[in-house]
Amino acid sequence: MKEESAIVFHCTRDYVFALGAMLQGLAGHAVSCSRIIVYTDFRDDAVFDALRGICRGIEFIHYPREAFLREFGLDASKPNIRLYMNRYTHLCYVKFKILELLARFRHVLFMDLDMHVTANFDEVFSLDCDIAWKNGVPLLAKFSRSGLDAAGIPCLKDADRRTPAPNGGFILVNDTMPYEEAYAFARDLFCRYAEYFNGTIDEIVFAAAVLSMGLRLAVLDPEVYNTPPLQATARTKIVHFIGRETKPWSNAMFQRVFPGWIRDYRQFSGRTHCVSDKVKDWGQAGLTSCRLEFTYGGDQKFGMSCQIAPDRSIRCSLAFNAENYAAGAQSLHGLMECLRRAGQDGGRDPGALGPEDLPALFASLHSRLEQALAPEGPRSDPCSGIPPGSAPVQGS
After folding, report:
1. Using an 8 Å Cβ cutoff, are 208 and 189 in contact?
2. Is 283 or 98 the better-scoring residue by pLDDT?
3. Rounded distance, CA 158 to CA 151, Å?
4. Which DSSP state fits 223?
5. Helix, strand, or coil (residue 338)
6. 145 exposure class (CB count in 10 Å sphere: 0-12, 13-18, 19+)
7. Contact of 307 with 276, CB cutoff 8 Å
8. DSSP structure class, residue 136
9. Rounded Cα–Cα distance for residues 165 and 137 (Å)
10. What gap in Å lies between CA 12 and CA 44, rounded to an integer?
């Protein structure tokens, strides 16, 4: 008899700390699932026992690189495969193996480890669909990075520029689909084309299966699930720290904006004595300043400096390059307007804003930047704190 649900993670030895923080977050918000499944490339009974102390229903599947290459008949000397595995891990390649687990579970959810749970999300397991995700870059745009002609790929012949593909950090699959057929399809596509990609193939196989097999897709609300930190609002349940410079274990600003992550890590390390030199606890270090840089394609670079003073005041500055002076000037105007609405006028009222106000501030700034750069023009109130766009699946 099948178990109800599973949450799946991929974990290498040097990211045990992130897994531990995730498990603390799931437990802290009483997220219900029958089992936690963790694919690892290492064996360490002491580490596994420590993790079992947080979650008794955890199961470890040893899946080393050699087993991966053998299972899919891949050549590790191929440039793209070598680049991908050296930059990330072979485990990232095979998110679609969650389809295999539908033989054991009714619902299987994959989650990246660079996430932070801020609220219970049990409603996801009740969605009436075959598969659910937050839309990422469309399918053909992802596929074009390989240099292959999608028109020559039979399973992509019906795709157009709007055909959706996921951001791979949070994907739910249900056993209402023909999951054995879906896994065989994904495996075949992966084996045929993996060597042409140094990323995104793990997302492409899901999108192609939805397109070719007519699977029922639920598009998750990007403000609630799998939300980048700059777009997080009070409705956000799962923050996804996408990008190398945004991780809460090293980025001082996001660690202050989302203090729950470092609390989860402290609880995990305190209970298990598992610590990592990747984690910088900026709160204990007493740091009060940090810098954020983000890019909107091509030469459209913007930088933002944020300083948190001992009196809890915040000083912000926005930098932009000469090629984007107009967009940057509009963004700076929008930032100042947002500051005024929050009760701080140009830094002259040092006690009005505190670190807890940063998520709405940065979401507002992100929205303003997006509008300034959008060719079709503004799409929402630039100071509302709500990024433009919506999706049919809402959080409770």
Report:
1. yes
2. 98
3. 9
4. T
5. helix
6. middle
7. no
8. -
9. 6
10. 11
Q: What was the pLDDT predicted at 361? A: 57
Burial 262-279 (b: 16+ CB within 10 A, else e): bebbbbbbeebebeeeeb
Could you tell me if 150 and 156 are in contact, meaning their C-beta atoms sit under 8 angstroms apart? Answer: yes
What does the H/E/C string look like for 259-284? HHHHHHHHHHHHHHCCCCCCCCCHHH
Q: Which of the following CATH numbers is that of domain 3-219: 3.30.360.10, 1.20.1050.10, 3.40.50.720, 3.90.550.10?
A: 3.90.550.10
Q: Is it the case that residue 313 has pLDDT exceeding 60?
A: no
Displacement of CA 38 from its chain's centroid (Å): 17
Contact 219/166 with Cβ under 8 angstroms? no
What pTM was computed for the model? 0.75
Q: Give the integer Cα–Cα distance in Å for 143 and 163.
A: 11
CA angle (256 as vertex; 251, 259 as ends), nearest 5: 110
Beta strand 58-62 with 35-40 is parallel
Residue 304's CB is within 10 A of a number of other CB atoms, namely 21
Average pLDDT on 371-389 reads: 37
Which DSSP state fits 129?
Answer: S
For 327-363, give the DSSP string: HHHHHHHHHHHHHHHTT-STTS-TTS--GGGHHHHHH
How is 87-119 classified by DSSP, letter by letter? HS-GGGGGGGGGGGGGGTEEEEEEE-SSEEE-S
Question: Residue 287: what are its φ and ψ, rounded to 5°?
Answer: -70, 140
- Please list the residues that pair with 153 across neighbouring strands: none
Of 175, 191, 180, 185, nearest to 210 by C-alpha is 185
Residue 378 pLDDT exceeds 80: no
- Distance CA(62)–CA(39), nearest Å, equals 6
Distance between first and last Cα of the chain: 30
For the stretch 129-171, pLDDT in tens is 999 999 999 999 999 888 888 888 999 999 999 999 999 999 9
Can you give the residue ranges of every domain in the chain?
A: 3-219, 288-396
Rounded Cα gap, residues 247 and 240, in angstroms = 9
